[in-house]
């Protein structure tokens, strides 16, 4: 289940053949509406072996620059934070032929600084606002279908699934709705939806404020991959006139470490690039490790970019603290026991040279780091130990 015998080169050829065969019957995805049904979205994925997140990652993040706000406004085309797409219609089946919650989701995703889960939360809020339902039961059913459509957009995205689940729990779990008329109850849902969206959107800044306190003058920080929340912590620390240096792993095959190094250099932060295999060699010079997370699981462990586990192992053996920065909407009701006990997120890998077909290529994009290798979690709920995560999940969901 986890390994694929075909290389990226062969998969690319297969993809080209499929596109040629379907060229007469399939229209360009950008010129047709997205259907909320999971079967339609599965058909839109030209290569189901590769996670949709990694197929659209380059378009989503683009070239990361410091002027994210300007990029966001330009990419959104005047779609400011908190606004709702005028084209979105959330009524009966006939009303949804041209538009869907997935269209709204993809509109929000055009903002480079907006996390995928927050884009989903904003989209679900627009479902409530635009709904033509006349009863609470109809509205809840419509909202659940919209959430299921978003989760089926990419079943490998932990933050997307967790964000949708948390939204449903936060918005609908109130007994007061049972004693109000429908219009008042709908208004209450809209208020709660907007509030949850605002909380989620501000999470990164809250974490940055908490995490930068752990950065001290003269320290050396090892960072793996490009995590926007980790970058926000480092940027906040730099703006507070703290003097520190950062070791960035290259982050193959995405080379996300190169992007992070580029951004930190613009902030005049001393940066050193490491090849991924030089982590143990350089760990003696490191004071702490900062990583992000695709998801935080019930045990307090994290699922993150491939290589996080081995970095945490090395840091633990050398008594270096490992700090993880993650928003609470990434807290997921998962309990993996080992590396293979979760749905794989596969990504394309190009080694730059042809790979023989009999050579097996590991294309998994992430690994699982158990809680015993983590020191603290920086979240918008506070600075937590891994053992507290299960308690916070109970609070969030129950």
Describe this structure in words.
It is globular, with a radius of gyration of 22 Å. The protein has two domains: 8-203, no CATH class; 207-352 and 359-397, Rossmann fold (3-Layer(aba) Sandwich), CATH 3.40.50.10470. The longest helix is centred in the middle third of the chain and has 30 residues, at 182-211. The model is unreliable at 1-13, 24-43 and 61-99 (pLDDT under 50). The protein has helices spanning 8-21, 38-44, 52-55, 57-61, 68-76, 101-109, 116-130, 136-153, 158-172, 182-211, 228-239, 256-266, 279-282, 308-317, 389-397; strands at residues 219-223, 244-249, 271-274, 288-291, 295-296, 302-305, 322-325, 366-369, 376-379, 382-384. The protein has a seven-stranded mixed sheet, sandwiched between helices. Helices cover 43% and strands 10% of the residues. It has 398 residues and is an alpha/beta fold.
Cα-atom Rg, whole angstroms? 22 Å
Question: Which percent range describes the beta-strand content?
Answer: 5-15%
Through-space gap between termini:
33 Å
Major sheet: arrangement of strands: 3-2-1-4-7-9-10
> Strand pairing plus helix content: what structural class?
alpha/beta
How do the SSEs run, as a string of H and E? HHHHHHHHHHEHEHEHEEEHEEEEH
Instruction: Specify the overall morphology.
Output: globular
Work out the count of structural domains. Answer: 2
Poorly predicted ranges? 1-13, 24-43, 61-99
Largest sheet, if any? 7 strands, mixed
Fraction of residues in helix: 40-55%
The quaternary structure here is single chain
Query: Treating each run of at least 4 consecutive H or I residues as one helix, how many helices?
Result: 15
Tally the beta strands: 10
Average residue-wise pLDDT: 75
